[in-house]
């Protein structure tokens, strides 16, 4: 975890998604009455089914997701439970996803049969050798093959906050080749494990307002473009470590505490048509906008780390308290499990891993770094959380959950209903061989005309479309 000093790199994220491709067909031309030639029924039905078959693979790039939270399980302490004890604790909390920072054998064995989804990390120094396909294959043989399928390993994160250290830029260029070698090894063994990396907010050179998000020039084209292409090709997520706490801590004169804690009732930022009630959404949307500029707005985001410490750094007092840590994580869970997405990418689920499971007394960086856990080393709660998003009774001076982003930004992205077609659009063109006869159009069509005719013809056509749309929805709803 890196403390980001540039407070203007606070507003970060990026994401378009299959949800934005899903459209509710609710066109009610109440002021026009049209009878459609029955000979067009099959044409409409076949056309709709062809659209379904072509569109659904592109829209369903990501597997059906379970709305549950994840946790970061670090082991930098001398007083922590055993791996098997930690796994039992995680399962008892109702958490279903766990992220490890390394492929520790004892922990992977302990996770066997637990049903937990496991994300495995590796250090940045492990990347250079993996550009050799044989070494990458051996890594899979040693760290993955012995544990699957008993241990449900879903993702390998290659490196953590790699782009923070500019003195090691040579490793940046080795990231994607290493990931490709690991991917080839997994495929050769029939394993459908995803690969990604855990990046950081300072990959951005500009982040305010969120729509102006731009990646640093030293990583945008040489590193991130091939990375996003790989993630797109393999339907994987771009993982980001997102810490509103550091944004508030480093620039509290500008960043209100309620904006960082998800408790603000009015927008702090209005960026075009998007209103931002919390800092995390702004951070994610700055990343999303930057991704769109590189042509990869369809790659989904996941949050590999986020949280709030219960003890502040030396000389920094005010919001580093158990109360605020509970408030942040409570509202985070509600926000994520409510599938609110972000203003730029509304209505989607963002896989999220809270940092961290335990307070870790050997972590470098001082007392604050050692107190991010939701549990003490003995397994008791530092503060209580309802991991399924139920009421946590968090304490906050202002309401804990921000209101809906805006009436115009619903939870599921639904475009406005189209305007009624013009008369020329309803009338067939003179050259159309299958056009509707003028007698099929009820005289007097205009703004004062009534709703659709009750004729058997229209009922049949609407029936065909209803069936088609139901099938279409059945295919697309799992994508959300």
From TrEMBL:
It comes from Physcomitrium patens. GO terms for molecular function: glucan endo-1,3-beta-D-glucosidase activity. Residues 422-442 have a biased composition (Low complexity). Belongs to the glycosyl hydrolase 17 family. Residues 413-442 are annotated as: Disordered. PANTHER family: GLUCAN ENDO-1,3-BETA-GLUCOSIDASE BG1-RELATED-RELATED (PTHR32227). Pfam families: Glyco_hydro_17. This is glucan endo-1,3-beta-D-glucosidase. Its EC number is 3.2.1.39.
